[in-house]
Amino acid sequence: MRRTSASLVAGALVAALAWASSPSSPAVALDPAAGVADLTQDINKILSDSRLTIARAGVVVKSAGTGEELYATDAGKLLTPASNTKLFTSAAAVETLGLDYRFPTTVLSTGRKIGSALTGDLVLRGTGDPTMLAEDYDALAAKVAATGIKVVAGKLVADDTWFDSQRLGNDWSWDDETAYYAAPISALTASPDRDYDAGSVIVSVAADGDKVKVSTTPETGYLKIVNRATVGSETDVLIERQHNSRTVVITGTVKDPYQEWVAVDDATSYVSSLFRGALAKHGVKVLGPTVTGAAPQGAAELAEHESMTLGELLVPFLKLSNNIHAEILTKAMGRKVAGQGTWSAGLKVSTDFAKANGVQVINMRDGSGLSRRDGFSPGSIVQLLTAVRSKPWFKTWYEALPIAGNAERFVGGTLRSRMRNTPAANNVHAKTGSLTGVTSLSGYVTSAEGEPLIFSIMLNQYLSSSPKDIEDKIAIRLAQFSRANPTADAVQLRAEEPAAAGDLECSWLKPAQC
């Protein structure tokens, strides 16, 4: 986990102290009426932006200390949250699984070991670990070889039965199928990098003389590469996996190196190929075919790998808004509570958690917010954000949220290029959300007088480019909020650096482009 510099820590100190205080008592005793009228006027002015004329906007601001509602418009309307859905999924996951939860991946054997031969099958069993890298499967293979096994007479069995066989989420768009942010969900998966983009492979191209060289991370023969690209005067290349296949077609021209994150078609089969190759590298030959199925009762454990804790996983999950983490955690919750690693079981856990914490308007179709049928009200989001402040795990969860204007990628996350050099920088801890025609920002901010505030901003059905700057202006105004000196400096409402262009999260624009 990366850490911010001493100067950035100093900049966030006031906010951290405010949110570390008791959730039940206000940071300061203040006249609850002073300054609110000016705040209301300023937010109304920000929302009068012409881009929102035909759109829907829901905004709620609440004092975390007094419980006072400082601003509300369409607080109870059902709106599309995009990745603000992850606020509910992550909170429910920590409550249900615990910060110390780890995903184990094990290798088991059936039959007997006679000399260097195993008479039965070798079983690779997963529980959804999204942090497994090719090197981790290699380490498991090395442990198998260390037991003295050189030949497996039986099959290589991929046991992905911890989750069900539904790979893609409810209502996910078919044209997202090959995108890494909509990769298939399996109990056996692998990531190509330490962003932990499970279920995907990085495909890289580079000019090599008069030819285009193609490579993958990790190295794998699982994908069939069809390279039709040529060396040109600019890089204008398309790397795309064909629908429902392992074939990746590369077209266009290449001048400078370029890479694309591509979802595999079948995460279980992909992992099986990685593990079989790793076994061969370590001198273990499997004579039988690769099949899928459950490990039989009594299978002996040969090796195990455990993931980082859920508390640690929250950082790449929330900072980079990782969809696959959200869906894996949803199924993991279902498995723990209902014994079923399914979306329906896991979503019930998340919904029950939200309702138990006072949330009334909620419709969850997936864990990440990729579904356009997900729906929350800004009032419901603020209610959740208020309720979790009393949880023993709140500090860890709060620190895992993106922090505005902090350039460190694993600190600022999807807010790292927003609200820089404003009172909101290193102050706002909030979750972003983006789909075409949808943007949202919900979280926490400390006012100019040290008063902790909770807010949710949801903008839907606009036809312009993404109006994230409207969210930023509201968040900055909240950072300036003062009951004693209510007039804000309007010039400060504009961040020096604009929000990322387009309608997608920063993390969706691989490689990092914002």
Automatic annotation (TrEMBL):
One of its GO terms (molecular function) is serine-type D-Ala-D-Ala carboxypeptidase activity. InterPro entries: Beta-lactam/transpept-like, Peptidase_S13. Keywords: Carboxypeptidase, Hydrolase, Protease, Signal. SUPFAM superfamilies: beta-lactamase/transpeptidase-like. Residues 1-29 form the signal peptide. Belongs to the peptidase S13 family. This is D-alanyl-D-alanine carboxypeptidase/D-alanyl-D-alanine-endopeptidase. The gene is dacB.
